[in-house]
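User: Hey, quick favor. My workstation is busy. Could you predict this chain's structure for me?
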Amino acid sequence: MAKKNFFYRNSLSIVLIILMISCLFGQFLTGWKTENKELSENGKALLSLAQYIHSGHFIQATFENWESEFLQMMLYVVLTISLRQKGSSESKSLEEKEEVDNEPKPHPKAPWPVKKGGVLLAIYKHSLSLAFAILFIVSFSLHFYGSLKDFNEEQIMKNQPTTTALDYISQSRFWFESFQNWQSEFLAVASLVILSIWLREKGSPESKPVDMPHDETP
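Assistant: No problem, here it is.
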């Protein structure tokens, strides 16, 4: 593949987005069938594909996972600024100052907030963590909305009274959905940080060079 080829230059993001969309589509279809199976067993009208995309079942399942991913990435970006792990490829050097710690300097090819300076630069210096924080808040809110809607849809199906948002947020169901995803995301990151001390993957930027000593931090 020619190195000037668009796919070569953007292949990582393209493949990841394709995988995400494929899995989301698979989740949508299997979730639709699962929800309709439950509705059928309870003698309720089945949902069309268009109706399912607005259902609490789909919204809750989707944003419950997105929320945990954005929380994980936000905290990982912030924690790796000051915290270290000896020997891990995911850690900054234990002693040496790194290029990412340098104060930004305007130059012809610098991003425009760097050239502009002031408040814009102050925001831009933390724009990655801020973006993940915003995505987390949006996903968390949509997860809550979807979870509440799904719960009330289940209550209606069982001929039980529905609940309000204020009452629902104090119940265990919503927080169980959140915590079960949050803990798995932190486990995955911790596994990468710790396993990269001793294990290698030749050619991957997430790994140390194969011949680097275990106790050496890149």
